[in-house]
Structure formats: C-alpha cells, structure tokens
Write a structure and sequence with these properties.
The chain has about 375 residues and is of the alpha/beta class. The protein folds into two domains: about 130 residues, Sulfate adenylyltransferase; about 150 residues, Rossmann fold. It contains twelve helices and 15 strands. The radius of gyration is 21 Å and the shape is globular.
Amino acid sequence: MTPIEPSIAGNNKLTTATVQFPEKIDDSFAVWECTPRQMADLEMIAIGGYSPLETFMGYDNWLSCVDSMHLITGELWPIPITFQLPNGWLQKGKTKLRLVHLDRAIATIDIVERFEIDLEVEAQSVYQTTSEEHPGVKALYQGGSTALSGPITFHEIPRQYTDHEYLTPLEARREFELRGWKTVIAFQTRNPIHRAHEYLHKVALELIDGLFLNPLVGHTKGDDVSSATRMKAYRVLLENYYPTDRVVLGVYPAAMRYAGPKEAVLHAISRKNYGCTHFIVGRDHAGVGDYYGTYAAQEIFDQFPQEEVGISIVRFEHSFFCKRCEQVVSKRTCPHDSNQHLVLSGTKVREMLSSGQELPSQFSRPEVAKVLIEAYKS
C-alpha cells in the first residue's frame, strides 16, 4: 500500500463556495425546483468534493467525458456532471436560472451555454446499457435532454445532512492533519455496515495511519436503507468495536448513480479531494443487478497510471464468515468449501429484518442488527 500524496493538495480550487444574498428576480430569470440528484451535485460542487469542477459541465466537457473519461483540460473524469432540464422548458431570452428547493433560493446559474445531450450515448458510455431498467439510466432519461452551464452564485451551501459528522473536503484534510495522519484510507458504502466491512477496515488499519469512514448519504433508489439508519449503525459500531483515535466518520453527500466501474473512479477522485491517500474498492462497487462484472470496478483502474488517479486503490475480494475458520475471511485466506461459508444476500437480509428475525452474529454485530430491526419495524 504505497501512499500517493494527494495531487490536489494546495489547489486553490478546492474551496467551499462563497455565499451571496440573492438578487431580485426580473424577466431575465427562470426558476427551477431542483431534483434530489441536482441538489446533491450542487452540494458536491459547492464544497469542493467534485474539484476541479466549479460548475456543471458544458458541451465540450460532456463530449470529452463521454468519449475519453477526461475533461478538456486533461484531468481524469469518468461521469458527466450536467444540469439537465426537460426539452423545451427553458424559454429563449432567459439568461439566469434561479435554483430553489423547498421555497429557498439555493443558487443562481448565469447561463452562458445550453446544449442538447444525446441521452442514449451517455447511458451506454457511463452505465454500459441503455435500458431504463437500470436506475441510473432511468434517472438520466427522466432528467431531460437539455443541459445548461455557466458560473454559479450560491445563496446558501446546500446541505442534505445536518448532523455533526458533516465534513467538507477542507475540513477533513484539517482533521487528518491535526491527528498527524500521513496516510488515510477511505471506505464508502450505501448499504448497512456488516462484519465483512469491519474486516476490511481492520485489515487496512494494520497498515494505514487512519480510516475515513465516508458513507454516501445523497439520493439513492427507494429500496436502499435510509442514510439515517446507516449512520446510526455506524455510530454504535464505532462506539463498541473501533479505536476512536484511528477513525473519522464523515458523510459523503453525493447522489448514487449505480454506474459501477466508472462511479468507482469518481468516488476515488472525490476521496482524493477529501485528502485521502488510499481508497478501498471491493466486490461490485457501486453496482446494481448484474450489469457489471464482480470485480469490474477494480479492473477499470488498470487503464490509468496510478499518478493520474492520484490516490492508491486498495482492492479487496469478497469476504465472508467461515464456520470452520471461525472468523471473517476471503478466498485468499480460507481453504474451506463454500458450504462452510455464511453469505447472506441483500434480499435475504431485508426479509429477515422485515420479519423481525435476528441476524446471525457472524454476519452483523448485535448492536448493528438491533438498529436495523428497529428501523424496519418503524
């Protein structure tokens, strides 16, 4: 696990956006109620999580990203971050778009470019499918084929999550520096924490100074466990089973796109912005259904020099509890047949929780299981 110094350290683009009082609306304005994904993208831009992006992509960056996974300035960037609107919605003559959420003015975009997105081309490039059965493709199509770009004036920093675990990239860097960490490994999940995750964390902590638990709390599909429940599960786990001086818990406010390999690259770049030197990529990272190979999210990093990614990727195989070994293991460390392995699918876990059944202690810590059962009961 050779550390890479975060290549963006000292980059003056990595700043939290300044906030200005909204100007009075006139005939040049259009007003748009942001979708949850747009709010998440705005937040990530505002706090520096999507640096070097300072606004939504224009056509040239969209095309370059779709064609080559790079921005026109040469930086690696795997997924278009565009501001979509329904075709024909924006009237001619409008030069400003006021973005609102729940009757609050969040930001204003000075429109300098509007263009049409080829939605099927983007879907195939990013998601490897054009099927609306894929939740990311469905969201893309629903967003509309018109996109616009221009400088953003923020009237408040959008924050979907308000508990104390919120850290901007700059705040996370300062926290790691205060703790004296030279190497920091980040871990993300949109799913409830379980023993296999704990195994990955503790293996990593044998070699790395600090662990940044950075669960995604932005918009996800409807059947995912809520962010509030997942965060509560993290808290009880950390209170009972982790060395608190070696772990920082902070939310990742991006929306989930379910883009598998390309989203793994985006997640790695974001964690570089947070000041991490390493990022864990496990089995089927950011995947959904059977659209991607089991380890495709690891293999995509073979396409790029490590210096271009700017963060070291730590690859873990699928881990599970082995009854014979009496511990969590992986295929690399366990010699026993699969009938000795305890592996619960997400569907099976949801079924057990919905019926109030206790999860096996080999799969989930009892404190975590209690949080999940209570959430499902309510």
